[in-house]
Amino acid sequence: MNNLVLSVAPKFKNLRRLVLRQDKPQLVDNAVEVIANNCHGLEDLDLSKSFKLSDRSLYALAHGCPNLTKLNISGCSSFSDTAVAYLSSHCRKLKVLNLCGCVKAASDNALKAIGYNCRELQSVNLGWCEEVGDAGVMSLAYGCPDLRSLDLCGCVLITDDSVVALANNCLHLRSLGLYFCQNITDRAIYALAHRNEHQVWDSDKSSRVKEEGLMNLNISQCTALTPPAVQALCDCFPALHTCPGRHSLIISGCLNLTSVHCACAFQAHRPVNALAHHAY
Question: Phi then psi for 196, rounded to 5 degrees?
Answer without folding.
Answer: -60, -20
